[in-house]
Design a protein that fits this description.
Blueprint (H helix, E strand, L loop, with lengths): L20 H23 L3 H4 L3 H6 L6 H22 L11 H11 L2 H14 L4 E7 L5 E7 L10 E7 L6 H4 L3 H8 L5 H5 L3
Antiparallel strand pairs: 1-2, 1-3
Helix pairs in contact: 1-4
The structure holds manganese (II) ion (MN).
Amino acid sequence: MPHELPKLPYAPDALEPHIDKMTMEIHHGKHHNAYVTNLNKALESAADWQGKSLEDLCRNIATVPEGIRTAVRNNGGGHWNHSLFWTLMGHGKGGEPTGKIAEVIKSTFTDFANFRSKFGEAAMSRFGSGWAWLAKTKDGRFEIVSTPNQDNPLMDGRDAVLGLDVWEHAYYLKYQNRRADYVAAWWNLLNWDEINKRV
Ligand code: MN
């Protein structure tokens, strides 16, 4: 099995009260695990692609064999996105951005309040399931974008600095239909040191 479920970098209750323990257990142990299982299953018929890194699969999604492309897009994207998502959060984090990301926010979005507002709009306007991102273009510009399903910025030639899962499975147990409350709470969890590794 070429791809494996990574361990959560903290206990499943570490993000309480903003993201509850049961949501984390199901999100990581069931949803993320299923993306890994289904990615491995899809790759069974494509020996040439089994040794590729997860990042390479995402970046080269257009050349993955057609018969498994959608499965790799959905499950490889799901695996990559969640593997990133867990690392961006932590217990006792949040607060004002620091380091390089603070500079990017200031130069591109004026200030943190405006950045949060624009990022929140991307998260709220994604109809159905998907993600909001701070993406970095090839020429070094930073953009807020959203993607459907498990697509990510790597699939259209960008890098991902920050990503927020807005699938209902990410918040429904605690927040039900109140996606805005989940998005607002998420800022209390951001691990800026980890995010700075991606700027
Ligand atoms: Mn998810």
